[in-house]
């Protein structure tokens, strides 16, 4: 070894006084970045996916044909007196043909009214077999959903949203008039 190599030694720089407390700032920034990322993932990304890869919208009187199912709205009825004799109900009957076995789940459906009001269907009634049928592969049959309406509910622009398959059905204008 030459003498110039022996005399070399690493130069140690002391941190300047202005950067002494940066470690805490970096840690706080990292934590805020993680929190912001989680919030974006939970609240921003799903609506973007729905917008670009979202649900199909079926106009009144048209048929949805996809995901192994063929679904159409047969008719819509408004019942002015429900179980308690006062609360109005909305009945929506669909005609469904499923290429694979399908068991509709009440959590799969939502009635959306004007003003962002969302209403789930009433629980199944065993005496009404049309309400929650089990579909065998290749079977076509009616399927009715009943929704308890809030007092004074307006049905203009009402839709029924399915979560599986991802589709939204616009209800006919006759639904707002009652039948």
Short précis:
With 179 residues, this protein is α+β, with helices and mostly antiparallel strands. The chain is built from 4 helices and 9 strands.
Explain the overall architecture.
It is a single chain. With 179 residues, the chain is α+β, with helices and mostly antiparallel strands. The chain has 4 helices and 9 strands, in the order H-H-H-E-E-E-E-E-E-E-E-E-H. The protein folds into 2 domains: 25-53; 56-177, Sandwich (Immunoglobulin-like), CATH 2.60.40.1240. The chain is elongated, with a radius of gyration of 29 Å.
Question: What profile does the largest beta sheet have?
Answer: 5 strands, mixed
Low-pLDDT runs: none
CA-to-CA gap between the ends? 102 Å
Which series of helices and strands comes N to C?
HHHEEEEEEEEEH
- What is the number of beta strands? 9
> What structural category characterises the helix and strand content?
alpha+beta
Which descriptors would you attach to this protein?
4 helices, five-stranded mixed sheet, 179 residues, Immunoglobulin-like, alpha+beta, 9 strands, four-stranded antiparallel sheet, elongated
Give the SSE layout.
Blueprint: H1 3-6, H2 22-43, H3 45-53, E1 56-58, E2 63-66, E3 69-79, E4 89-98, E5 109-113, E6 117-119, E7 139-148, E8 159-162, E9 167-170, H4 174-177
Parallel strand pairs: 1-9
Antiparallel strand pairs: 2-3, 3-4, 4-7, 5-6, 5-8, 8-9
